[in-house]
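Propose amino acids for all 255 sites.
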C-alpha cells in the first residue's frame, strides 16, 4: 500500500495501479497479476451478469410508463429477483415491487388474474376508504421483451379511475402485446385526492403481477366474469408500431 502525495490524486484504475481513498487520504495498490476463480464463482458471476442485463431491459421497458419514483434499492432488488431467472424461470419475478414500501394488495383485496388468451381480469370487489384519498388510479402496463435479442418489442398501457369506499364492478384488459418474447405485466395503483396524485409512498404501488415466457399462458376460468365491466382507457402516450393494436377488448368497446 502506497500513499499518494502528489497535488493531483485519483481513484480507480490507471495502468496496473489502482487508486483509492481511505479515511480522507489517497493510496495506491498494484493490480493482482492473477485472479483465482473457482468454477462456482465463475458461474455466480455469469448468473449475476445475465440478471443485470435482464433487469436493465425490464427497467427500460417500464421506466417511461411508471408515474412515480421507485425506491432507491429497486435496481439491486430486481437483479437479485432475476438471478433464478437465468435458468429460464422468469416467473420468479412475479410479485416484485418497484416500491418496496407498498404493494397493490393494499388497494385490491382480490389479485388480478391473467387468462390463457392474454386478458387481465380485475375482479369486482369493495374498495377500502382512505383518509385524504377520494379515488384510485389503476394502471396496467404490459411489455413484450425479447431477452434473446436484448430488445423491448413493445409496450402498452391503459388506465382507469375508481372511487374509494365504494363497490368496484371489475374490469378487463387485453395485455397480449404483439411480437415474440416474454410478456411482463405491471399493475400500478396511485391514490388521488381532488384529481391530484398523492406524494405519499404508502399510496403508490407498482408490482409485477405476471411474467410469462413465450409459450401458451395457463388457462384461467372466466365464464362468470361480469358482462358489464368498464374499459380501461387508452392513454395518449405513443405506442411503438409493433404494439399499435387496440389494448381494450372489442366486446367492452361495444357496451
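Proposal:
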Amino acid at each position: 500500500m502506497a500513499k499518494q502525495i502528489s497535488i493531483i490524486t485519483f481513484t480507480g484504475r490507471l495502468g496496473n495501479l489502482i487508486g483509492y481513498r481511505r479515511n480522507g487520504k489517497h493510496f495506491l495498490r498494484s493490480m493482482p497479476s492473477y485472479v483465482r476463480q473457482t468454477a462456482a464463482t465463475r458461474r455466480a458471476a455469469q448468473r449475476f451478469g445475465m440478471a443485470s442485463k435482464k433487469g436493465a431491459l425490464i427497467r427500460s421497458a417500464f421506466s417511461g410508463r411508471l408515474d412515480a419514483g421507485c425506491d432507491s434499492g429497486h435496481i439491486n432488488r430486481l437483479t437479485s429477483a432475476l438471478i433464478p431467472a437465468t435458468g429460464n424461470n422468469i416467473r420468479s419475478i412475479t410479485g416484485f415491487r418497484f416500491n418496496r414500501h407498498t404493494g397493490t394488495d393494499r388497494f385490491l383485496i382480490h389479485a388480478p388474474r391473467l387468462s390463457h388468451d392474454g386478458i387481465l381480469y380485475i375482479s369486482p370487489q369493495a374498495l377500502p376508504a382512505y383518509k385524504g384519498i377520494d379515488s384510485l388510479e389503476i394502471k396496467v402496463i404490459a411489455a413484450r421483451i425479447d431477452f434473446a435479442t436484448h430488445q423491448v418489442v413493445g409496450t402498452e398501457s391503459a388506465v382507469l379511475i375508481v372511487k374509494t369506499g365504494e363497490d368496484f364492478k371489475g374490469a378487463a384488459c387485453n395485455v397480449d402485446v404483439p411480437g415474440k418474447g416474454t410478456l411482463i405485466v405491471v399493475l400500478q395503483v396511485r391514490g388521488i385526492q381532488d384529481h391530484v396524485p398523492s406524494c405519499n409512498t404508502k399510496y403508490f404501488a407498482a408490482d409485477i403481477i405476471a411474467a410469462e415466457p413465450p409459450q401458451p399462458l395457463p388457462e384461467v376460468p372466466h365464464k362468470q366474469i361480469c358482462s358489464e365491466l368498464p374499459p380501461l382507457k387508452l392513454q395518449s402516450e405513443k405506442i411503438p408500431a409493433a404494439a399499435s393494436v387496440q389494448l381494450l377488448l372489442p366486446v367492452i368497446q361495444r357496451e
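The first helix runs from residue 39 to 62. The chain has two domains: 1-35, 39-253.
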